[in-house]
Amino acid sequence: MARKAFFSFHYVPDAWRASQVRNMGVVEGDAPVTDNDWETVTRGGDAAIERWIDRQMNGKSCAIVLIGTNTAGRKWITHEIKTAWNGGKGVFGVHIHNLKDRNSAQSVRGANPFDYLTLDNGRMLSSVVQTYDPPHFDSTKVYAYIRDNLDVWVEAAIAQRAA
After folding, report:
1. Dihedral sign, Cα of residue 122, residue 96, residue 17, residue 12
2. Which pLDDT value is given to residue 6?
3. Rounded distance between C-alpha atoms, residue 92 and residue 88, angstroms
4. Rounded mean pLDDT of 94-108?
5. Residue 62 near residue 6, CB atoms below 8 Å
6. pLDDT band at residue 163, thresholds of 50, 70 and 90?
């Protein structure tokens, strides 16, 4: 049985890349939100967005941050990471810049979003949370690498939080 995971990613530039990972079938993810649904949520302001994120994370055992060029430091990505971490969920990141987008373009490797958060002891979250950067440039090989390892990464992140 596939684990249930919450996928965090920068929607506009990375939705196509994220859909490739989400549709691998390795983990059961949150349901994709349509542009219209997201507009409805955002019209309710920050509190509505926070409630939506909380509902989406409910019942998930892990948060997977799909790291694109501009993922790090984004307000809602940071909020999702904090929510997952503080909720005791497994958390990790996967760089997706070498997956092709809908125009068959790759992008530039983004910064580690876990470098932007600190733990109570003052250490950066990146000193605890794993990020994975597939060691390939060919999009097909990147896809296969993520598909072949995603379940292992999920289990490792969950086990880390249980320890």
Report:
1. positive
2. 94
3. 13
4. 97
5. yes
6. confident
